[in-house]
UniProtKB/TrEMBL annotation:
It comes from the Bacteria. GO terms for biological process: methylation; porphyrin-containing compound biosynthetic process. This is Methylcobamide:CoM methyltransferase MtaA. Keywords: Methyltransferase, Transferase. CDD domains: URO-D_like. The keyword Oxidoreductase does not apply.
Length: 357
């Protein structure tokens, strides 16, 4: 296992100044796999801030990646607004029931208080531990599910998509109250000294059409991005699945970084929007990181780097989405070691050698 020469914060600051660094930033997005590193059950995250923070810290210490985030699942914000969530003993939480059954109940929905409602206070407390203990060496973030995705969980995915056609005004009302929850939570993240990041899986072109995304999703996500930017913080956003038809919309929101799924063409993304936004991605989290060998991981990291390392606004080696919980540690180490082996500035002949060209 190779060792880093710089801390993630030292690396980020040097790159921002155009100075030499030891390697490109790399973030495997270990997600709830941090429980395996720390030796706890995922269900312990739901009630104990100390456990969330300790697991994130343990995973960062184990692998040395370039960003740590408090984020457990997609549903704390909807749950805080009345949704029911299922908590397996040792797997990621899932949605049990939306906050309301019918649009006639929409008036009962209220924005969540991040310091009082649901699991949000647990996450806020975890952020305090995280920033206090490792915030001087690695960038610390608080994850938010964006207002469009969260709105789906308030009424239910099937009902939401029907409302696009039957009652578009109701969709806007759902997104508006969802946005207020997201803004309040973003402010709470900022108050702890962390940087908000946005996950918007329901914005994927795999899920909704670009037309409906532009009508119902983009305006509210953009308002959240602009709110965070107004507080002096850059925003990174991840959208799962196919996104090529909405790349320009994402750029228009003002995000600083865009994390893309492995089903997207990384080189095309760089060529289309890399001059305006940092690109993060996109090693396959399932067939490569979870099911592949360390050599498969090493090759995939080199292939992704070959496609995007010279992106004008910067490139971060990353998995295409959150890693499966039981991703082998040796494969996460292989990802980090490949980034260290590649180094920076990147030499294409080195990448060709790693790929096997």
């Amino acid at each position: 296992m190779r060792k880093d020469i710089m801390t993630p914060i030292e690396r980020a600051k040097a790159m921002a100044r155009g100075e030499s660094v030891d390697r490109l930033p790399c973030n495997p997005n270990a997600a709830n796999g941090v429980a395996r590193v720390y030796g706890c059950k995922i269900s312990e995250f739901n009630t104990c801030a100390r456990t969330i923070a300790n697991a994130q810290i343990a995973s960062y210490r184990e692998f040395g990646y370039d960003g740590v985030r408090i984020f457990t699942d997609l549903f704390p914000w909807a749950e805080a607004m009345g949704a029911k969530v299922i908590f397996p003993q040792d797997n990621t939480a899932d949605l049990g029931a939306p906050a309301i059954d019918d649009i006639s109940e929409l008036g009962s929905l209220q924005p969540a208080d991040p310091y009082r409602d649901g699991r949000l206070p647990v996450h806020i407390e975890a952020m305090k531990y995280l920033i206090d203990e490792i915030g001087d060496e690695v960038g610390c973030a608080g994850g938010i599910v964006g207002p469009f995705t969260n709105a789906f969980f308030l009424i239910g995915i099937e009902k939401m998509t029907k409302l696009f056609f039957k009652n578009p005004e109701a969709v806007h009302r759902l997104c508006e109250v969802s946005l207020e929850t997201c803004i309040r939570y973003a402010d709470a993240i900022l108050a702890q000294g962390l940087t908000p990041t946005i996950s918007e899986p329901m914005s994927s072109c795999t899920v909704v059409s670009p037309k409906h995304f532009r009508i119902f999703g983009a305006p509210y996500i953009k308002r959240l991005v602009q709110h965070i930017k107004s507080k002096g913080k850059p925003v990174t956003m991840h959208i799962c699945g196919k996104t090529d038809k909405i790349w320009e919309d994402v750029v228009d929101m003002g995000v600083a970084g865009f994390s893309i799924d492995n089903v997207v063409d990384l080189r095309q993304c760089k060529e289309s929007i890399g001059d305006r936004v940092k690109i993060l991605g996109h090693v396959d989290p399932a067939s490569i990181m979870y099911a592949g060998t360390p050599e498969d991981v090493r090759r995939a990291v080199a292939e992704c780097t070959m496609q995007a390392w010279d992106s004008p606004k910067g490139y971060v080696i990353m998995s295409g989405c959150s890693l499966p919980v039981d991703t082998p540690f040796e494969n996460i180490h292989a990802m980090m070691d490949a980034a260290r082996e590649i180094g920076y500035p990147v030499k294409t002949d080195k990448l060709e050698q790693m790929i096997g060209i």
